[in-house]
């Protein structure tokens, strides 16, 4: 098989690209912006074929290739912020289970000071100091007696990366090598070569009290009187490399006074918006090229070059690390991850709660069997897959389901098929590594859940519940989920409606009206978005559509319409009525399937339940009235005749019909589906 060119960044033709299994990749490289992703790809010595299949819930786009002797998987965020970074990393770890460590590479805002002469185009590398891992989340903490107390301490990069960083520090004329690599990496593409050149515009730093002249992209009209004079460097085109603390958070710093205050408080030299979402769950080194000074004088002129020098540093770092040393590391992801759910791809907002939860989880190891009450989606976003030896999801609907779940988790975790419940509880209580149980749907007020908690010092428990009394179990705290913030609610509606990013601004006002009607309820908003995405109505008309439906619901079902979930009832009815009016066969099948699902008390229903019913129904030729009480009959599977038609020539054909109906319900956000288990 022909190999692709080994020239840095040179793309090979599709026929030349080699194909490797996901388990071959040991390094994860994450970018936040398309510009950063292009710079990262330019550092590949060889481009590999993209994966042909992936988890249906994985929204990442992966770039695969080789840097030196390391197989590297790259992914780029579709939005800013630590939450998106955590979700991208979590999906990457699932898709590429042998990733040993990560690199977060891209642009950042510098924090210049007398001690740190940071300039545009310089490079900042996260450096652990004392108890800090090289990255601090500047917006995670609380004020006590006029002092800011941090709630967490993010993890340090793996020792292997720190050793490589120290080796690069001693390399002769290393900065010049970085500059040359950043310049030559784009030779194969004239467009990119021009885009990633060091800008001709001046590097100007203004005093903290001087604001940028409004509406001007550059600082040409800014008053030079307020420009700070700095000593000229021998060669301004050669970037300097700084090692220190990176302050990470969920917002862009645009005021010099805020920059200076946070920089001094946290002893930081650079800002970014993603690293805080990675450090605990995705052991990585953060490399930032400085593109601005975190003040009102921001512009994008320096972003491409800053991304290029950061990517060049990251490549040199990988070339410094022996591949044998990487393979000797343990993969990032958990040894056991038994959770039949995925992060909702539309998960939006809740940034404050996410920050607080990360602070709690960062200190879980110091608590004795802590318990916290949150939602299951929130738990998945916060956790990723790296904080625990094992994560086990347990259906807490009934006492029997808890016992079965505990036994199943212990049997798989400890490789012992003969365990009973007490054995399982004892094993978890005495186990030496940190584990987590997620008790989902713990809503029954008659159950004393505490009797099912394993004890010991390494256990952690999350409960999801609608029962307010369960707060008493929350030794590490609890969170109550009310309405989404207006901004987050609007973003969720626009995302789930399938409205492209470039058109979202012009639709914000109408989206705001709709989410207010839906009392900013996340599920109702998601279902409304699904209806719009299906083309049943457009966003401007949805408010009238919904108001009409709510009036009808109030008339026919007053109890439901006035409940906490009234908006969910209304949006669900809109979807159901659309299916009833439709002439599409798969929509009618979907409605029949929805009616069947209404009789089941639980979720996670296996596809096999339906296929076995189809198999059995084919063998029934006659039935008597008394059979309705004792045997499965053709009458019982009457509603299956559409979604699993008896006239289908084989099981596969019947299941295709079932799959189409299931997909319609998914598209309306009426059901969720696990592609790994084929369960609804």
TrEMBL record:
GO molecular function: catalytic activity
Annotated ranges, domain Nucleoside phosphorylase: 44-301
Coiled coil ranges: none
Matching Pfam families: PNP_UDP_1
InterPro entries: NLR-like, Nucleoside_phosphorylase_d, Nucleoside_phosphorylase_sf, P-loop_NTPase
Compositional bias segments (type: Polar residues): 1-14
Residues covered by region (Disordered): 1-25
GO biological process: one example: nucleoside metabolic process
Record-given protein name: Nucleoside phosphorylase domain-containing protein
Classification of source organism: Eukaryota, Fungi, Dikarya, Ascomycota, Pezizomycotina
